[in-house]
UniProtKB/TrEMBL annotation:
InterPro entries: F-box-like_dom_sf, F-box_AtFBL13-like, F-box_dom, F-box_dom-containing, FBD, LRR_dom_sf, LRR_FXL15/At3g58940/PEG3-like. Residues 27-67 form the F-box domain. CDD domains: F-box_AtFBL13-like. It comes from the Eukaryota. This is FBD domain-containing protein. Residues 1-27 are annotated as: Disordered. Pfam families: F-box, FBD, LRR_At5g56370. Residues 355-396 form the FBD domain. PANTHER family: F-BOX DOMAIN-CONTAINING PROTEIN, PTHR32141. Coiled coil: none annotated. Residues 112-337 form the F-box/LRR-repeat protein 15/At3g58940/PEG3-like LRR domain.
Amino acid sequence: MEMEAGGPTSEKRMRVGEDEGGGADRISDLSDAVLGEIISLLPTKDGARTRILASRWRHIWCSAPLNLDCRGLARCGELAAAVISHILASHQGPGRRFCIRHGFRGYRAATVDSWLRSPALDNLEEFNLHCRRQHQVMLPVLSEPFFRFSKTLIVATIERCHLSDNTVQGLQFLQLKQLSLEMVTISECSLQRMIAGCPALECLLISYCSGFRRITINSVSLRSIGVRAECRWASERKFEKLIIENAPSLEKLLHLDWSTGLDMSVVFAPKLETLRCSSEPYNIILLGSTVIERLRINTLATVVSSIKILAIALDILSLDIVIGLMRCFPCLEKLYIQSFETGPNNLWRRKHQNLVRCHDIRLKKIVLEQYYGVMSQVSFVTFFVLHAKVLESMTLRIEARNSNEEFFAEHRKKLQLEKRASRGARFKFTTNKCFRNIWDIKDFDDLDLADPFTC
């Protein structure tokens, strides 16, 4: 009876105490190799501080794979440079990640050159270089010492640099899977050469770059592409055309601008499932021989059955445009819509009867930003309420002033939710962000999500 009530032997009491967090230090029982891997995932300061935990930990950080992020080490550039040099001199390596923000005093080209030659960075896997616009003279950083990582680098982020043809010539990163170029000036031939020199590349992110007008993609490994075509410097050559010539593994193609004109041509991408585009006047999308201009189907030569997730930015909410896209993408399952104006009435009872009779609407999820409850929006939403037979959820973002039971009751009635075609569909009014917009997609992790738009 005493045992059942919680009176075990002293040995059992000790084990219970340990399980409840009041006993032995179980993490220190892990091997040095495992602890080193854990420490290498911590921010630089936190990883270094583990040395003070106990004598058992003192040597681990210096021998663990080095994660050196120069941001936040010191406010003064010269002091930060001294700290970085000290870390690299005392660390045994190998290198996992090196992130450097260049442009402060003390970050001189010769100093950075010596850092990149350090044995502590041997077998470096991730490199992040951020330069200030006025410090293009530091580009020798990307020459000889940088090439030594060509066999080990997996992730590379390069920001605010000018990459000369001489610098790019010969660049080959055999293991590189993720490449991000932001506010980089580079010629078209050098950019093509750079992409071709990464045979394992899976994720490509290009933001605010200049010096080229077009990119042609031929890659058997690329799975995700995100582009921001806007150019930050009006005097430089602007990115105007993206051609996906041969990309058999490509799954996501995201144009991450609000309104910048960019022509996208997809010749061969049979696995393309996720697409983001806008109704900018100068945006033309070619999918095989199908022509889409301002999101309107000008020529529907062939349908694209692979597209399942579509995010669009519309100047004016238009049911005609959306139905046209549904005809082009007959297997579409998720639709994210951001519109800036409510537009016309979106009448459909006669106009789209043929679609309703002859085609199944396969949409399972619809998300609409900025629902004010005006007539054109009510008509738009009601179309899907009454005809989307496999719909699982619809989310409408409303203004805070409309977040009350009176508004909800009124629009449940207006939208005829009791007559919904899909009896299991859930309808949600929310004041929170409905989905992740273009500003939320910032890096590789965002782009690599199964659905990059889900909040």
